[in-house]
Amino acid sequence: MTTTSNPRATASRLLPWLLLLLTTFGPISMDLYLPALPALTRELGAHTSIAQLTVTACLIGLAAGQLVSGPISDQFGRRRILLVGVLAYIATSILCAVSPSVEVLIAVRFVQGLAGGVGIVIAQAAGRDVFDGTQLIRFYGRLAVTGSMAAIVGPMLGGLLTSVVDWRGLFVFLAVLGALILVAVLVVFRETLPDDRRTSGGFAQTTRDYRTLFGDRMFIGAVLNQGFMFAAVFAYLAGSTFVLQDIYGLSPQWYAACFALNNVGGVIAGWLGGRLAERWSVVGTLVIGVVVAGAGAVGLVVAGLIHVPVGAVIVALLLLAFGVLVSGPPATTLALAKYPQMAGTAGSVLGTVRFGFGGVAAPLVGLAGSLSILPLGLVTTGAVLLAGASCLLLVGSKRAAEEEPAALGSVSK
């Protein structure tokens, strides 16, 4: 990765890596403890669907945190809001570790999500501040891979940690991780948005920016696609721990090992999505991701209707995650590349829809209890079908076809 020659981009060479790290600590806080969710449910005496609200609360918090912090960072700069977010993340992680009831945990998880959302939107916006041209497309590809991979690495790491700590210890680990990120931000991150590029006008300007974004058919199509794709993948993350452990009897460690396979596929998928979007077709790559994810979702429906071996379920989950990761780089490019003057606001809408839709979908997989795969299959299939329908906004008109090369060209300032 290289930064532009503009004076505003005279940042440390470590900045790109810090931005990639920032986009992980929100998602990883959502799913690090997923392998311990059954144990948490038993200890706090909660129903499966109520315990899964701890996932939902964090997802909704991640969405709301991005919606608020994006426009604020466009007006007041990236660094200050980032420092506030990281400090809040550390504090809420500690509060999660000492929560006495599932109700308290749900409330604190929402605030933890708010704090985690700041890192995600700042990573996207600061990248738009300092990268140009194909470097920006590649950065979004890596950002999409890193953020999505965090959602997959989290359960794997959590499964390993559960061999030495309980679910409360996992939140202590997140607090320590937040402290390390705080040190990195203080040392590496310098303001990427100079005063002369910040927006002004307060709430009125933010309203005008939203009006511009929501009037762009391609932006809406890309954002809705990612919202429904993330709904599928977060339903999978919330439900797979019960499917693989309660139904198929896998230990937390074997559950983590299954996610190691998804890790390998995720690296390939994110790389492939970025390269195809850059060299072939942005919209075409997005459609490929939807088709692959759809195949995985249908496989889960089949597993819910007839008994299949655990290997078949793991393959279906792999295809679902693979498709979502392929779709990330092209969708992010379509949504953000045309709006350098409001990167924070555009990124906040994208992130809010991604995690907001995920927050709504996650608890639905637990409505039938922890011993049925069918709800997971139905929720993921429905979400992927809606993601495919959203692509019609991109490929269903002559104007959309004409705008794709324009979107690619607009990343050069």
Largest sheet: none
- Residues in helix, %: over 70%
The fraction of residues in strands falls at under 5%
**Overall form:** globular
Number of helices: 18
Average pLDDT, to the nearest integer? Answer: 78
Could you list the spans in which at least 5 consecutive residues all have pLDDT below 50?
Answer: 1-11, 397-403
Could you give the order of the helices and strands?
A: HHHHHHHHHHHHHHHHHH
What oligomeric state best describes the polypeptide chains here? single chain
What class would the helix/strand composition place it in? mainly alpha
Cα Rg: 20 Å
Number of strands: 0
Alpha-carbon distance between the termini? Answer: 17 Å
How is this structure best described in words?
The chain is mainly alpha-helical. Helix content is 79%, strand content 0%. The chain has helices spanning 15-22, 25-31, 37-44, 48-51, 53-76, 79-97, 102-130, 133-161, 167-188, 202-214, 217-247, 252-279, 282-305, 310-336, 343-361, 374-390, 392-395, 398-409. Helix 5 packs parallel to helix 7 (102-130). It is globular, with a radius of gyration of 20 Å. Mean pLDDT is 78; it is low at 1-11 and 397-403.
Explain the layout of strands and helices.
Blueprint: H1 15-22, H2 25-31, H3 37-44, H4 48-51, H5 53-76, H6 79-97, H7 102-130, H8 133-161, H9 167-188, H10 202-214, H11 217-247, H12 252-279, H13 282-305, H14 310-336, H15 343-361, H16 374-390, H17 392-395, H18 398-409
Helix pairs in contact: 1-7, 1-8, 1-9, 2-5, 2-7, 2-8, 5-7, 5-15, 6-7, 6-9, 7-8, 7-15, 8-12, 8-14, 11-14, 11-15, 11-16, 12-13, 12-14, 13-14, 13-16
